[in-house]
Structures are given as structure tokens and as C-alpha cells.
Amino acid sequence: MSGEVKSGEFKTKKVAVLGATGYTGIELVRLLLEHPGAEITYLSSESHAGKSLAEVHPQFTGWDGLVCSPLDSKSVPEDVDLVFAALPHGSSVEVVPALLERGFRVVDLSADFRLKDDSLYPAWYDRAHPRADLLPSAVYGLCELRRQEIRSARLVANPGCYPTSAILGLAPLLNKGAVDTNHIVIDAKSGVSGAGRSPKQAFHFPECSESFKAYRVASHQHTPEIEQELTFMASGGASPEKSSQQGDGKPGGAEQGVTVLFTPHLIPMNRGILSTMYISLNQEWEESELLEVYRNFYADDFFVQFFEPPRLPETRWVRGTNFCHLSLRHDRRTGKAVVVSAIDNLVKGAAGQAVQNMNIMHGWPEYTGLTQTALVP
Amino acid sequence: MSGEVKSGEFKTKKVAVLGATGYTGIELVRLLLEHPGAEITYLSSESHAGKSLAEVHPQFTGWDGLVCSPLDSKSVPEDVDLVFAALPHGSSVEVVPALLERGFRVVDLSADFRLKDDSLYPAWYDRAHPRADLLPSAVYGLCELRRQEIRSARLVANPGCYPTSAILGLAPLLNKGAVDTNHIVIDAKSGVSGAGRSPKQAFHFPECSESFKAYRVASHQHTPEIEQELTFMASGGASPEKSSQQGDGKPGGAEQGVTVLFTPHLIPMNRGILSTMYISLNQEWEESELLEVYRNFYADDFFVQFFEPPRLPETRWVRGTNFCHLSLRHDRRTGKAVVVSAIDNLVKGAAGQAVQNMNIMHGWPEYTGLTQTALVP
Amino acid sequence: MSGEVKSGEFKTKKVAVLGATGYTGIELVRLLLEHPGAEITYLSSESHAGKSLAEVHPQFTGWDGLVCSPLDSKSVPEDVDLVFAALPHGSSVEVVPALLERGFRVVDLSADFRLKDDSLYPAWYDRAHPRADLLPSAVYGLCELRRQEIRSARLVANPGCYPTSAILGLAPLLNKGAVDTNHIVIDAKSGVSGAGRSPKQAFHFPECSESFKAYRVASHQHTPEIEQELTFMASGGASPEKSSQQGDGKPGGAEQGVTVLFTPHLIPMNRGILSTMYISLNQEWEESELLEVYRNFYADDFFVQFFEPPRLPETRWVRGTNFCHLSLRHDRRTGKAVVVSAIDNLVKGAAGQAVQNMNIMHGWPEYTGLTQTALVP
Amino acid sequence: MSGEVKSGEFKTKKVAVLGATGYTGIELVRLLLEHPGAEITYLSSESHAGKSLAEVHPQFTGWDGLVCSPLDSKSVPEDVDLVFAALPHGSSVEVVPALLERGFRVVDLSADFRLKDDSLYPAWYDRAHPRADLLPSAVYGLCELRRQEIRSARLVANPGCYPTSAILGLAPLLNKGAVDTNHIVIDAKSGVSGAGRSPKQAFHFPECSESFKAYRVASHQHTPEIEQELTFMASGGASPEKSSQQGDGKPGGAEQGVTVLFTPHLIPMNRGILSTMYISLNQEWEESELLEVYRNFYADDFFVQFFEPPRLPETRWVRGTNFCHLSLRHDRRTGKAVVVSAIDNLVKGAAGQAVQNMNIMHGWPEYTGLTQTALVP
Question: C or N terminus of chain D, fewer CB within 10 Å?
């Protein structure tokens, strides 16, 4: 891929990163520094305002021009083309409306604009949504499934890390209408960086190293986001190009919403999510037919690579990259399909997908600045 | 617990360990050295015959009397009371019959005598069973569920690590007859020591550190063992004391066998298995009722600790111990129960359970020599 | 070793553990529960007063009788024979004097009573010592080197983890008078549990996993403790039995104190310290002579195992145990000796040595309750 | 830095990678795919000839054009500008001479051409050098110190990983003539990827995870390479631009060679080397003067970043990058300087430096294709 995207082809665009010192923030900076079309002109950090990014994160030593401003929507320079908001959930909604009013396009990496149904916020996020009026126009930024809307969006709600891995894994079967939507189980496992950068007892090294656990069993706040998008897929959603891939033209046909049982786990490692998904099929299928569904669905998507049997994903193969690796097995004994998906939670699950969204919004090739292969080992 | 089991109460019994230099073998030695009733008088190792155990495994420096003999059923001394066979699958069946003929009681830690239906061996282990005649009298040594049979057994087939975690987690609900046996999903995760001590590409440090993967999706050889025992539980099995705990006296009522979808995963850590199990309930249940089923079922079992909500198991809390920690959640949204179980794969999943079986066979308190608490952190 | 120390031989003694919920505290509890002569009758915890230990540390589930009191020297029951103080540095000195006045013997695991020269406290611990009057009678509890004093001590200052590994490694050569005391370099590496249980940015899992660093280069507060004891050794110190091992009866002859350059490092693992020590020899030596010095020096010490070449220590072989593994190489090219020592920082480096001190104080065999072999892997 | 090196400025050059499936090989491929001036046109692999690289290393899925040829110097295409040989020690010398005869420029990543004195090969590598005639013209490719020679070299011997970290850390002081060359101690620690990709008992996950050890104490084969280059530095070496930085123009003045005591250790992580170096100073120095020496020495070197106190290097900050992070402390108590250096063993310690060498050989900016910042966390 090297060399395909030449910087000479780009008119460089200026970008801002809010919340630049968190894990998602520094991942955005890492990716944007390699992006031939983006120029970082503004960084904010509440906890480290006034410092250079290299003072807080010494891996940026040598890039000492990156200085953090205090978080303030008014100080984002006028000539910025796009703002990445990598703020905590609940903080984003305090800042993003003002940015939109100032005319900026925003890719928001928090959960604040992901759910269309504002009544879900009190149930899953413990507070009413203060700006429910903005939810209808926000676009859920799962690139492979909503490209067309993203292209012209003013506000992209960048998906959560778990939802990205789960939705990409389940979308083809749901779009095909092949699933008994009462028995979807998503057993997901994440590295510790998903918990953010603030030290807490549960993520103190000796408390999670050499250990493994489930948490928020069947009650994680990413559940409604997954259900919203799978319901969309089951009702025939996805971009037109995807819809045409359905072959038989039938919508997935879920009149009621899709419900999933989602349980996350903590892996003693830094990066990566692996989701294992169990799906009851609603008719007899040959494994070869199921494989064909996946192969076709993602045939044109560079960042979703479907693995043919016997290969199965491992998180290391996507470490540091924007790829999602997928595989499927049909278990004849139980009539279920098992889909395994792997992503890097900080890249395809956060900063990388945000950059991919920027590429789509700017009409650039989707892979621009995102062609690095995984850091293995 | 300290001091309850006093060595003065025991007439010490002599034991042999075959396959003493593998991970299961050294774990047996570790536990037996602390056991007040057992005296190791014979060790075998094919790869390290003639060496002291401390030469191969320097953690035994200071216990230099432990010398490995070549593997030979004839050289096990007559006065040995019990033989632990910690040999590879397929090797055990070559040795154990001769030991039984010589009159030894045997706890076999391989898979060679676990399945009652010998027709399953070709399907799951790629070879016909050469001594199917021994299968009927072998007792599946999951202590909490088959105590009575174990007590008088000549040959105990010590359960696999995954099956131990899965069966203990599912037994109460199946015994209660509360499960739609068509939708049992077992998503299990294991540390790398489960793969044994021989170096292989997949377990080379840089290939599995900082990574996570599924393997043998829906096709792992531990599947039939789990199904065999769950079928037993669903048909009203378990020791009489357990049966009486059923309350309503009704057998679980599974006329056909239980089928499970079992998928293992590899965690980048040394020890521990966490199994997350998804169960469709066949009627409406309150969570409190389900909790009561578990609480009661294991009320008298020291090594199975049921955690009340909101606590969930973590593998570190059983590291180095013979405990199984369990929890249950009822997901009203999907009508499923989620059971999480944690064990140390080398202890309750192998050597510890073998010692617990020895204790039962000798009429000793089950916890004898097994009261060490976890090595945390 | 199993069975050598029978509980029947002991009159059980009651012990108290102050600071029971920190890593050192729970390690003491873990060891004391297995100790045939000790009965825990009092636990304190400032942060978790009123809770059972199992609520805070679920690995103690099944031992629910262990309840934490608020920290209060007055509430330690009269019939306690020995108090373990596992409190933070600076807190211990607030409590221990009152315990001594009440007549308790105390093993203090903090740094508060380790240094004889109270003028070192301001320099290395940033505060004057409030009870310098107690320092002369406190005994530095490095068991192998000060047994005789420990036996009758009222207050034992349990050594630091780094000092234990360093002093045990260097003592034989210094005692022999074989060292140019101007060029001692101690390059030590520790697992993260050494940093304690409070979450901090530097020990947040993603900040130290898959990374390695030096810290407090040549300025760590364990330096004066090492120098104090090495000066003692160099001047002919150690228990009489050690002194007699010197052969030539000559003191080490360091008229001035020994100075060391000590630099600690952080290893991305939970437990273990490995110290690599570089020593300029003050005369020509054959490697075989140096090996003989070590072999003899520790000939009667169960917990210090000297490895003959080519074996070198690895921290896993002492994990969870009270052992120190040592090796030595002579580098003819540079005229230096390299000594490598490995301990478990929480056992021989803290709680295990504290129990060993208790054993000595009570006249019990030193290994009582400490015979568990390492948890490998 | 992004955008500074534009692909439009380059005439792309064709490169070959021999030994493409080892860890160094895939790291070269990873870096070269991002390099705007290099085009991979030939890959070889003995063990995986005929396969696409993605079959062996699925992180390259999506780059399926990369196919491995069998290793054969004759099949390297004529139009290749530069060959990277990432072959095992001893294999390289079998292939490289033929490549040189065919007129290719070669960057060899093995140890086969690093030592000028061929008599050292039998002592440290257990065999005589079969082509000692090539040693004089091979250039030791430590970029920062031998730029001028590298520029026109036909054969660059890419430095070992440990030597890179050690030499960069010690060069300024030796060049300054500030060191007592009899007391240099290098205590180095490496992640496991340094051991290569072949599975071995010592690098089996459960054997090295959660453990730490020293190995080849004072006898590692990288020792002579370090001594050779430090002797060069001590005698006033380094590129002219460095020499001029000496200020006083005095050569380091080591008439005899420099001898070092070098001991490597194994860290339970994938990537990174941290070397802690202890240096006896031959006169009185202020710390500020020493810092100034380092600051100046590397003032113009993008890839060597000298950290001002109190900052100390951590390997994570260079993970995946070509940087070397350095710091220095003066210990007034012992009159020694402590230098700490961190690199990624696979990048600056191998593949990255090889690419940097290519850049120098082609007259490209040194940082071309090497500007990615570290993957943190």
C-alpha cells in the first residue's frame, strides 16, 4: 500500500484534538502525525494545560511543538476543518454543541451522541441527555455500515470499542435475515487500555496482571448501542452498496428490535478486543453459505478482513492498526454460528475509526494515513 | 483452617507420581509435599529419568531426595497406596491397566478414562480406545458430584480443566431441570499453562503475550466430557446428598443428552480458567430463586464458593488453590442466566482435584493438604 | 520436608497483624494460616475496618472469621504473643512504641526502625525520626545474619525487600574481606507488588505492562540500610556461627563504611526481585575459591540456596516462597565477581522473613510454616 | 514531522529482504511498507518458501502480493538496489559474499561482519570466520557514529540490539576521555523477541512470563562488538561532526582497548531493551557538565533523545520506533555516572537502524519512513 496515498495529492486540512492526553487522545495524535492530509493545530487537555504533549507523554519527544491548551470551545481556531473530541462521556455534550454552532464538523469519540433514543441515556448512563435535540442529526460512525451518511455529517458519533467489534461481526448475518434474534450472545474481552488512563484499584498492575474476570455481566452501557445498530441492520440497513449485496433483496425483517446478551471481560494485556459471538440460525445453513455471506458483505472493505477457515483472529495481528479481523464457524451440533472478531480497541475501536471517519468526511481514500501494519510481536 | 488437619491423625500413605516433570506433575509434587498424609516414594519422568527433580525444576532445590525413575509400571514399589498418573493423553492407557492389575488404586489425570461411551474416542481423540473394557469401572472424579463412587473407586478419571469449571458452573441448574438444553453456550478462557510444558510456536512468549485468541471453536475434545456429565446431572445425577438438595425431588428430566457449544480461548497469563456460561431458562425465574439453587447446591462443599451479587470471580483469587469460585446473574432482558466460574487449571482443574480425590479415597477430610489460600498478587 | 514440623509439637501462640489489607498484610495472613504454631487473633485495617478480610480480598472466602479492627494499639488483645506491624513507613513509628510499652514483642515490617544512625532518616526519608531512642534496641531482622540477636529481641525491624536480596548476595564476600568497597554496584529489579496496593499512575496496568524502567537511580531510600548491614558484615559481623565460617578469623576490615551504588528497576510482573551485583575483588581469586566462600557461608541456611554453575536464579523459582537463590560468576576479563540473587519480594523480602523472625523469636525451627515450594508456573 | 518527507521527492528504489519471516524480517517489511522511497520486490524465507507473507504472518492480510522465495542469492532480481539480510548468524556469511559479487549493496543484520578482528569469532561464536577477507571493508552500521563510512559502504554490518543501546549510551563519555575504562559495567535487560521466533523451552510462555533472570553473565557474544566500538570512541572516533563536538579536541586516549562487563537479562515482555550502565569517572565532574556532554554529542541526532533530569527512559516510549532515549545521573557518593538507555530491540536494535542505514546509503533524510511515534500503551 505504501506510496499509494501521496501527500502531494492533498490539500492539508487543519484538525483539533480535544482531550489529547488520554489514551484515545494520544492515539489520535499518533495517527494524525502520520496522516498526509491532516495538520494538528490545536490540542486541549484539562489536566495538563500549558504543557507540551512530550512532557506528559515522552514518546512525543522530538515533536515538541504540540502544546496543550485548556479545554475551551471558543479557543479552537477558526481555520480548523474538523474537531476530534476525545473527552469523557458526559463532558463531550458540554462542549460539542458550541463547536457545532461555531460551524465546525465534529467527530465525537464519547458515547454522548451514539444513541438515537434519548430515553436510553437515563437507563444506561444514569442521567437524562441534556441535548437530545442533537441526537437525530448525529451519525453513528461505523464506517463500513454508514458511509453515505458520514460523508455529509456535521456530527459523527464515533462508535464504542466493544460495539465496533460486535456489530461488524454480526451485521452480515442480521442483514441477511438469518438469525433468531432472541439468542444472540456476545462474549467480549478487552485489554486494559479500554478502561482509560486514570489509575483505579481494579486496574492497578498487581490487581489485573495474571488474572482474568468478567464485569458488568449483561449490564454494560455499550449494550443499547449494539442493539440499535443491529436492529438497523436487521431491518435492511447499511449503505446502499451493502444493501445491494443482500442478493435476495429481502430486509432482515426484524420488526421488533434486536436484543443481545453482552458480557465484557478484562484481559491482562494493553490493547485489543476479541469478541466471540453465538448466533442461533433460523434455518438450515451450510457453513460454505455462511462464509459466502461474510466474504461478500465485506468484499470492498479494506479494513474488515474475513479469514477463511481454519484461520482464526488473534488480537496481536491488529495491534496498532485499523483492521477488524473476522472469522465464522458453523456448529452443526447445536445449529449455531460462532463469529470471532478482533480489533485494536484504541484504533478501529476509537482513534483509527475516527480518522477513517475524517477521511470519509473529506472525500479522501478511507485508508489514508491508516496503512500501518500491526506491531508484531 | 490452619491446624485442623493435624499430621498426627494420619497414618501416612505412600504415593507415586508418573510424569512428574510436566506442569501437572510438578503441581502434584508441590501439593503432596505439603500434604500431612502423603509421602512421595516414587516419581517417573521419561524425559528426565535419573535426574533429581530439583535439577529439572529448581524450585525443588532443598528437596533433593526426589529422583525421577524411567516410566515403568513394574518399578512402582509394592507398598505404594495410590498412583497418580500425570501422563499425556494416549500414554496413560498404555500404563494404567498394568498398574490396576498389580492392585494399585490409580488417579489418572489424562483423558483416557473419562468417557463412558468408547465410540466418542475416535471422533474426539482420533483413535479407538484400546481398553474400552476399563471404561465402565472408571469413575469420573469430579469430587463434588461423585463422591460416593470415588470413595471406593480403583480407577478415578480426573476431570479435564475446562470440564471442571464448566460442569461445576452448570450442574445446579441442570440438576434442577431449569435449562433449555438446546442453547447452552460455554465460553471458556484459559491461561497458557493449560497447553503443557513442551515448547510450541503458538505458546512461544512473543506469540501469545499481549494477545488473545479463540481456538478449536466448537470442536475442542473436552466437549463430550462436559456433555456426559451434564447429561448425568440433567437426569437427576449427583451424589445422594446433592439429589436430596433438589428440593422437589424431580430429576432434571433430560431424556436426550445435553449438547453444549464450547469454545476455549487463550489468555496471556500462566494460570487460571474463567468460564462464562449462557443458559436459556425454560421457565420464568426470579434471580433470587436461582441464587438459592446455587447456594444450596454447594452449601456443604468447601471448595466451591458461590459469590453473592455483586461480586464476580477473578482467576487470581483461586491462583494456586483448589477452589472454584462461582457467580450467577439473571438477565431479564433475554431470559438467560449467566454463570461465571473461576478455577486454577493446574489445581482444581488437575493436581488439586487429584489430591482431593485421594483424600476421598482414603477417607480423609477432603481439604487435607489443600488449605493454602491463593497467591495474591 | 512435609510432616517434619508437626502441629502437635507446638503450643499455639496468638499473633496480631496490623495493616492486614495491604499486600504485605495479606501475605502475612496467607502464611500464618498455614503455620502450625500461630493463631491470628487480631487484624487491623484503617481503610477497611469492620469488614471481614474476605470482603476485601476474596481469596480468603471460606475463612470468614477474619475481621478487621480499626488500627488502635490499645485494642490489641493482652494474650497476643507477637504483633506484626505491616504499616506504611512513618505510620509504624506512631504505633509501635505503645505496643512495646504494653509488653508485646513486635516484628515491624516498615523502614521505621531499620537504621541505627538516626541522622540518616532526614536525608533518606525526609523527616527526623520521632523516636530515635528506640533505634539502638531494635534488631535488624535479616535472619541468616543476626539470628542470635533476633532470638531475644523485643523489636525486630524486618528488612526491606531490596536490602534482603542485596545483603544476602554480598555478605559472604564482604565478610571474607575480598571486596574493593569503592566499586560495589547493585542493579536490582522488582515486580510491581513492591510498590504497594494503592493505585498510582505509574503502576496503572497500561503504564507499566510491556515496559521496563529504572527509577530513583542511585537515590533509593533502601541504600543506607544496605550500607549499614554491609558495613557490619565487612567489619566481621554476622552471628558467631557465620563468623567462625570465615576460616581465617580475620574481620573484613572495612574501617570506613561500605558505600554502594544501588539502582532499582520495575519489571512488568507481580512478584520477585532479582539483584545483579558487581564487585571489584581486591586480590586475585579463582572462581572455585569464590564459590567455596558462598557454599560454606550458607551451608546451614535452609532458605538461602547457592546454585553451582552453570545454574542461574530465576524469580519464578522462589515465587511464593521464603527462599533466596544465589549464584556467582567470576569475570576474569575485568577482575570482578557478579552475584545474582532472587527472592520473592513479598515473602523473603517481607512477610516470609517476618514469620521466620517469629520462628526464631519463639525458638521454633526456622522453616516452620514456610516449607511451601514455589508456585511454578 | 508528518509530511516533511514527501514521496514525490523520491525516486523509489527496489529492495530485497532475505529471511523475511523471522521477527527481524517482518519488522523490516513493516517499516519498508511505510517507507516512501522503498519498494519491496523480493522476499526470501527458507521455512515458508512459496507462501505469501500473510499466510505466515496474518498481520499482512491485505498485502497479499508479498510472496516468499526460497533463499538463493542468484534469484535476487538485478534491479534491486539494496539487500537486507535478516538471516541467522552463520547463515549470512554463506550468502552475502555472492550478493556483493553480483554488485548489490547489502545491509546485513547478523553478527557475521561486525567484528574487525576475525580472531574474536572462534572465541565468541565458536567458529572461525570463513570470509575474514570481507571484514575490513564492512562498516559497523551504528548510524550516529559512523555516518560518513556508511554513506559509501557496500556492506553494512548492522549492530546488535544490546550493542546499539550500550554504545549509544557510553559513546559520549568515552569520546570525552572521562572514563576509567577498567570499571565499565553494562547491565542490560531485553524483551523476549530478542531471542527470535523459534520456540524453545526457555521462551515458552509459562517459563518466562512472571519471571526475570540473568543469562550468559559476563559471557554474551555481544561483548566484543561493544568493546570494539567503545575502543574506537575512546580513541577519538566518531564521524567528523562528532569529533568536532569534543570541544577540547583531545582524543579519548584509550591506548589499550576498552573492556566491559556486560550482563543481559530477560524481561517478561515482547519488545524493548533498557541498559543501565555504571561508569567510574576519571576526574571530578559536576553533573551539569556531564549532561552538557550528552546534550551536545547528540544535538543533531534526531533518533537519540537525551532526557534532562528528572526524566528517565522507559521502554514503552520507544516501542515500535527507531528512537534511543538516554539519561544520565552523577552519583557523588561513589563518583560514578549512571547512564540509562532505552531502545526497541527490533527497531533501533535491528530493522529500524537497517532502514536508517539504507537512508544514509541513498542520501535520503535519515528519518525517512521512520517517523512513526511509539505505540503507547
Answer: N
